[in-house]
Design goal:
Keywords: Membrane, Signal, Transmembrane, Transmembrane helix. This protein has two domains: 78 residues, no CATH class; 30 residues, no CATH class. It is built from five helices and no strands. Helix 1 runs antiparallel to helix 2. It starts with 6 loop residues before the first helix and ends with a helix.
Length: 141
């Protein structure tokens, strides 16, 4: 969503949504961390640059983390490889659905809900202002 709407507009949109009003500052902070980690000017929204940054990150991990402690895992593979890496029998998670709350669709749905909340709350705020203005103009007339 932040790639479609500027952080400044997000701040206004989410102003009345508890827990979301600080999102633009969080986003700015993340961009600072990305710049520190991947170099200034690295635009991680550009797939090619993100791929290069990711490859550099993986190489650094391979250099710094002992091989017997390093595990690369794709969450799309579910419980199996994760249980194997952690030494946990897969039977312990049998029947437990794998959480998929950080995929693109879930995040888009979540942000869409936050945006709807923000719009509804701004509409309520404006309606109250208009109502108070109408009452005040009648009272003063």
């Amino acid at each position: 969503m932040a790639t479609v709407i500027s952080p400044w507009i997000l701040g206004g949109l989410f102003f009345w949504v508890k827990g979301a009003r600080h999102m633009p500052r969080i986003y700015d902070g993340m961009e600072c961390v990305w710049a520190w980690r991947y170099g200034p000017g690295a635009d991680l929204k550009v797939t090619a640059e993100a791929g290069v940054a990711w490859d550099r990150h993986v190489e650094q991990l391979k250099e710094c983390v002992p091989k017997d402690q390093l595990v690369f895992y794709d969450v799309r593979e579910g419980w199996g490889p994760l249980c194997k890496a952690l030494g946990v029998p897969e039977s312990k998670v049998k029947g437990v659905p794998f959480p998929r709350v950080n995929d693109k669709e879930s995040l888009e749905k979540h942000f869409e809900g936050l945006a709807k909340q923000g719009i509804q709350r701004w509409l309520m705020f404006v309606a109250v202002l208009v109502g108070v203005g109408a009452l005040a103009s009648r009272w003063l007339a």
